[in-house]
Amino acid sequence: MFGWGKCTRGETKMPRYSYNSKTERTLCQWAQLAVEQKKFLVYRVNLDKFEGSPLSRCRAEDVLNECDVFPTNLIDIKQVSLRRHDDRHMSIRKSHEHTFGEVALVLEVPPQNILGVIPRGFSCSPIYFFNDYQSPYRLTQLDWFKLLKKYRVLVTPDKILRNHKYHNEVLVVGRPSLEINALKTRRIKVVGIICTREHVSDGLKDGSATRMAILSRLCKINPSLSVTVV
Length: 230
Description:
single chain, alpha+beta, 7-stranded mixed β-sheet, two-stranded antiparallel ribbon, 8 helices, 31% helix, globular
């Protein structure tokens, strides 16, 4: 238990992220991701809808930090599930839960920006909130409060990867300076680009190399980001 209000050496012990002890413990585990560098939150880039999207014109970090809420996936870099972009044997739902697709942005998300996940069994899927599963979507104020009250389930990273009760879709707050728990949200950092070997090989085999050209444009718009192939 956390001893809120107890003094240590003359100072009041304050929580790092939340005055709710359960929320505090959970968010402290999310903070370990940045320390361990083994699991990462990533934002999938939809190459089929890249043209005309904000990511085709602006820095990825600026785009995501203008979003109220957007979906991310938690990946273990050692256990990344690969999927070819033309693989149709896997259902859309299953592929969404077990892979980041072809290309994704690797993020550093402050723990206080993490809203939680959508539990299985809900009649309303995450796609409903965002209109397009792959693209950030600005919620109305009414949708914002509905999301917070009804659909947020805050769990530890291990429960997302090991427990089939939850979808591997972590909702995070993009906009800084919003009060969610004990602290205001901060800017999210985009620290890299990750893509599958199958994406690279398929792109090179493609005579037009269209998909590889999109990846090149993404890198050109974000020159500070290195690309990791897994």
